[in-house]
Amino acid sequence: MENMSELLMKRIGTGEKLRRQDNLSSNKDSLTTPTSIFKCDVCKDVKVVFFKDEEGIERTRNCECLENELKENRYRKLKEFSEMPLHLKELRLKDFRVDIYDNQEDRILAEKAKKIAIAYIKQYKAMQGKNTGLYFYSDCKGSGKTRLAIGIGNALMDYENEHVKFITTAK
Predict the structure, then answer these.
(1) Do 151 and 93 contact (CB within 8 A), yes or no?
(2) Residue 92 CA to chain centroid, in angstroms?
(3) Which is it for the CA torsion 139, 141, 147, 150, positive or negative?
(4) Which secondary-structure segment (H or E) carries 8?
(5) Distance between CA atoms of 37 and 47, rounded to whole angstroms?
(6) What is the tens place of the pLDDT at every residue in 121-169?
(7) Rg, the chain, Cα only
(8) One-character DSSP codes across 55-114
(9) CA torsion sign, 50 to 53 to 55 to 59?
(10) CB-based contacts of 127: which residues, under 8 Å, 6+ apart?
């Protein structure tokens, strides 16, 4: 009786022979090495890799290509869930500009707020354990509150895989 990997390799091997025949028939005059038809040469697009454990039992694990695909899908879903407008999804805290403020006092306050936001992200797990959040307040429209909040939200999705929801007072 054939094991799982032998059956799979027979199937993949057939595809390999067909690929070589196709490449050789289309390149009759050239002696080039056929190119792979697989997106992933490690698992041959099966998304799993076979290995033997310490006891010699054949096992499978997810291929790195599947792990990357799962990460990308999760990240895409986090971004969709956030309902963040498209033009805000790429904003990061590192890109928060303090030089746009007119006077020195405002630039100093903006720089301090940026540093606090970055520190919050770096200490997020500890802050979460203490049920501690951030609150930005300003009487002034255009002071950077939403921009900082967007940067924090994107960082939480990027580094902590957290669900973030973008809501304005109009909603």
Answers:
(1) yes
(2) 15
(3) positive
(4) helix 4-26
(5) 15
(6) 999 999 889 998 888 888 888 889 989 999 999 999 888 888 888 887 7
(7) 26
(8) TS-EEEEE-HHHHHHHHHHHHHHHHHHHT--GGGTT--GGG--STTSSSHHHHHHHHHHH
(9) negative
(10) 120, 133
Residue with token string 């928060």? 96
Q: Which amino acid is at 26?
A: S
Look up the pTM and report it: 0.60
DSSP letter for each residue of 134-159: -----SSTTSSHHHHHHHHHHHHHHH
Tell me how many degrees the CA angle 140-128-166 measures, rounded to the nearest 5. Answer: 45
Q: Is 83 left (phi over 0), alpha (psi -120 to 50) or beta?
A: left
For 6, the token pair is 């032998």
- The letter for the amino acid at 75 is Y
Measured distance CA(113)–CA(107) in Å, rounded: 10
Which is it for strands 58-62 and 48-52: parallel, antiparallel or unpaired?
Answer: antiparallel
CA distance 8 to 56: 19
- Render pLDDT for 13-33 as a digit per residue (tens, 0 to 9): 544 444 444 444 444 444 555
**Which positions ≥6 away from 148 have C-beta within 8 Å?**
93, 96, 113, 114, 117, 136
Is-contact 62 47, C-beta < 8 A?
Answer: yes
